[in-house]
TrEMBL record:
A GO molecular function held by the record: methylenetetrahydrofolate reductase (NADH) activity
Family, similarity comment: Belongs to the methylenetetrahydrofolate reductase family.
Keyword Transferase: no
Alphabetical list of PANTHER family matching this protein: METHYLENETETRAHYDROFOLATE REDUCTASE, METHYLENETETRAHYDROFOLATE REDUCTASE (NADPH)
Keyword Oxidoreductase part of the UniProt annotation: yes
GO cellular component terms attached to this protein's record: cytosol
GO biological process: methionine biosynthetic process; tetrahydrofolate interconversion
Official protein name in the record: Methylenetetrahydrofolate reductase
Lineage top rank: taxon: Bacteria
Catalytic activity reported: (6S)-5-methyl-5,6,7,8-tetrahydrofolate + NAD(+) = (6R)-5,10-methylene-5,6,7,8-tetrahydrofolate + NADH + H(+)
Cofactor(s) needed: FAD
Organism, as annotated: Corynebacterium heidelbergense
Length: 329
């Protein structure tokens, strides 16, 4: 068998994300954060400051999303590479959108050569309109499970620790929850070690997903399911995110936020934010009590909101001037 190329050593060896879920200090729940590639160089610098602050708080891993379009994509790789030198366990999201198979192979080799061996294998949504018709790129792949098969079949594949997306309310394109369960299991059987969920606001949905997967396949279904949490800071943004995710904002949460808004969302922005952070904290507390393996904060690059939830959980100091920047867009 020919020698497989080794990833170039980073100054710090990358821990596999699935290992961060296994070896944690008793009593302490790991947390991780998701960043989007920042828009410009200045925002990129602020992101590194924020990432360092999360490092000091003991973040288990940092993930970087993958968008559509060349320069954003290059930024994902650049940001991920730099985060990984911090040292931060860095997870790169990768999608099939507008990529041929040779391009995907090239990209995976590039990650390996940079020492970035944590990959979130995703299909991605149609660019422009996420809910629009999915069109497979000619010469590309159709499903995230095929990307996992591609990576694990590559010589570099054995260095990778692969995660996937899972959907507490079912993926909006799936026929039903049974099909959604089968597809999630297919990705786990193909070699994924864990999943990160779509954001949700009803913890029962997360628990039902966990039960469904474990009942359908006790081995694969027992792999860690990391809950994705988006701290609520405004009604507008939470509604928009739920719409993009094809999911529902539970009526009681909407009522709680509307009551904080008191009929005037603009005038009561601070109160809505306060109540929103409280709701996210409550969800996190319940998830911790239910044994979630990690809390994954989808920060939307809003660092302060995440820090406030962590503070409420006793996992971070209160937000202070010296901490950094609240938005790193
Ligand atoms: C934690 C997380 C991070 C994300 N990060 C990003 C990101 O960085 N960039 C981005 O663009 N998007 C991101 N997304 C969004 C994601 O790409 C979309 O939700 C996408 O619609 C589904 O991706 P998937 O990997 O789950 O696809 P898949 O698992 O391939 O599923 C896609 C659809 O196809 C169906 N399907 C899958 N396999 C089969 C099969 N064999 N036969 C029939 N039907 C099948 C599924 O039911 C589903 O409806 C993220 C989502 C999550 C939850």
């Amino acid at each position: 068998m020919p020698d497989s190329p080794r990833p170039a050593p980073l100054p710090y060896r990358q821990v596999a994300v699935s290992d961060t879920l296994r070896f944690n200090t008793p009593g302490r729940v790991p947390f991780s954060v998701e960043f989007m590639p920042p828009r410009d160089d200045e925002a990129e610098l602020r992101l590194f400051t924020a990432a360092e602050a999360f490092h000091d708080l003991g973040v288990s891993f940092v993930s970087v999303t993958y968008g559509a379009g060349g320069s954003t994509r290059e930024r994902t790789l650049r940001v991920a590479r730099r985060l990984a030198t911090k040292p931060l366990t860095t997870l790169v999201h990768t999608t099939l959108v507008e990529h041929t198979v040779p391009e995907l192979i090239h990209m995976v080799r590039a990650y390996a050569s940079l020492g970035l061996t944590n990959l979130l294998a995703l299909r991605g949504d149609p660019p422009g309109d996420p809910t629009g018709q999915w069109v497979q790129t000619p010469g590309g792949l159709r499903y995230a499970s095929e990307l996992i098969e591609l990576v694990t079949a590559m010589p570099e594949g054995r260095f990778f620790d692969i995660g996937i997306a899972s959907f507490p309310e079912g993926h909006y394109r799936a026929k039903d929850l049974q099909q959604d369960t089968e597809i999630t299991l297919r990705k786990l059987r193909a070699g994924a070690q864990y999943s990160i969920t779509q954001m949700f606001f009803d913890v029962d949905h997360y628990l039902r997903l966990r039960d469904r997967l474990a009942a359908a396949d006790p081995t694969e279904g027992a792999k860690p399911i990391i809950p994705g949490l988006m701290p609520i800071t405004s009604l507008r943004s939470v509604r928009k995110q739920m719409e993009l995710a094809g999911a529902q904002l539970p009526a009681d949460i909407e009522r709680e936020l509307l009551s904080a808004a008191g009929g005037d969302e603009r005038a009561n922005r601070d109160r809505i934010r306060e109540v929103g952070i409280g709701i996210t904290t409550r969800m996190a507390e319940r998830l911790i009590a239910e044994g979630a393996p990690d809390l994954h904060f989808m920060t939307m690059n809003n660092v302060r909101a995440t820090q406030e939830v962590l503070h409420n959980l006793g996992m971070a100091p209160a937000w202070g001037e010296e901490y950094g920047h609240d938005m790193v867009r």
